[in-house]
């Protein structure tokens, strides 16, 4: 009897499900209106594309070529937009002209309708082209999961979140491994104090970056004796993972590179008691802790029996955290710039509650896109439900970007006047 | 060894029934917990592979593993392997278990050689793209195999020869070669390029086992015109003195379960090599003179602690002044003591294992 509402809710969830799209392609389902500010920005960039292209024909320069490559989709989209606008103007003039043949009229009408139908997709293209790709989009990723407020219950839910992402990655065919799973001191082992999943597929960061933030759970915990519902939180952080093989391409050793870490600034500690070493002892303690002194960031790793492997993973995690932090600082800057233009931007940071998992209502709500699914089980199993939620958040992110871009352009125009 | 407080034992028991057993050998809760996790993972994987057993199979297995561990059996002998770099090295009774320090300096040596190869390539001297490495006292073969795994992609030809006195160790080294080939952790070239052979480093002519040079003459890659040749000598010889073996410096588990042959140099015929003040250094003197005889370009020796390493350095300089006063080689103890180490750690560093690296100045082996 208790299961009944759950079943109904699940049915509802299925009915409202959005058809699955590949997340590799950003989908924008906004209204067809294109703000004039965005169009001006697109035109400016398209003009830049034309002038740079002519420069390229005279003398080849890799920097310019790269920029041209970035701008090409925008120029293409603007061209399409112009073409369709021109053809519509022409068609309208044919229709408005009283001297037009009666035979031609229905044909023109038909053409006009088809053009109008094509506009939304062209607008979508244009918007997508305008959004710059996230700098970490092509990278694999690390997912760091930590329990927040809520004590033991948070630790229990952290394990479930970890399982959810493992199942999701398995279902999507992304190779994922748990590289770190620390248990809390003094409690049973199913309570996690920190977990890290490595997703090795290229582009995994782009797929999973919707998941960064605080995940809230509302349920009656297994540890609760009086049947009260508790609210606790688990924080999830999606970090870019930099492949060891790309060390030279990304410039790990180049002080000017974004990914550079001065090894002098990293304190490495072996967690080994003093005394004799080498052949004298056979200690299996292989834990490593790295601390980046300027930022105070610290990572520890003890999952592998090999100290060498632990050190490697610890460096990978430290690199990822520092890169994310640097990127975040840069984002803050742009947000600060935009704030002047927009007067407060809806930006969801790491510290914000992004999603609620409510067991008694079998409900999963994402607070960014506002989507609610009554298929909690499916979401927690990393099933289609999670895909639906992630897709909606992805759309929300694109929407936010577009709004911010538009606001920025409007502000620019105002300043000019 | 300080007693483990009862409160810790109780806390351990509260977390898992088997933890107190592991605590006997591990001494800290953190490390006991890690070992329990590793043992459980292995017990589960063994139980799932062998069909027909009851579902309680892995629990029984885990329990017997933990009991063995509490008696001091090294974790690596129970699990049967130990990760070493990216390789998986099989471990069996009678052969020394690879240590993390060995892993660290082996990787460092490979980095040194790689940076040297890069420099050579930049200067356009890439025509001679081959390297010969002799690993003395190879044991499980871990150093030989890891060096091959790390260096093979950068060289057209790489010959590695591991020499050990123990036939048990040689058998295991062969198994390790095959095992890592099967796992795909070694390139298929390793099958032909890595060899293990029996040899007696001290070469007292009483055992009937050939000395290092004789072994090398039997290998076409390491001999030319009747003389033995190689580029790099690397060794983790026995270096524990009889006194340190008995007085508690050497851990119980090591003393009881690992082969004494791989830990303590024989003491009976030290008189054959003159100038050896400490009997535990006998292997170093022999290997250093081999280094000169073979005219190798890089020598890497693991030492038990810093005082021993300093003795090795002075033994080398003494011999260098005698045999090759014009050669300028750089001698260093690795890892170096840098300014980052806090003062209370520097005492620890003094008693930790380290390696003596001898290479031509300007890093050109």
TrEMBL record, chain A:
GO MF terms, alphabetically ordered: translation release factor activity
Domain Prokaryotic-type class I peptide chain release factors: start-end pairs: 272-288
GO cellular component term of the entry, any: mitochondrion
The entry's keywords: Methylation, Protein biosynthesis
GO biological process: mitochondrial translation
InterPro entries found in the cross-reference section: PCRF, Pep_chain_release_fac_I, Pep_chain_release_fac_I_sf, Prokaryotic/Mito_RF
Pfam family, one: PCRF
Domain of life according to the entry: Eukaryota
Family: Belongs to the prokaryotic/mitochondrial release factor family.
Designated name of the protein: Release factor
UniProt source species: Aspergillus taichungensis
Automatic annotation (TrEMBL), chain B:
Domain of life per record: Eukaryota
GO process terms (BP): methylation
GO cellular component, one term: mitochondrion
Keywords recorded for this protein, A-Z: Methyltransferase, Transferase
GO molecular function, one term: nucleic acid binding
Name of the molecule in the record: S-adenosyl-L-methionine-dependent methyltransferase
Native species: Aspergillus taichungensis
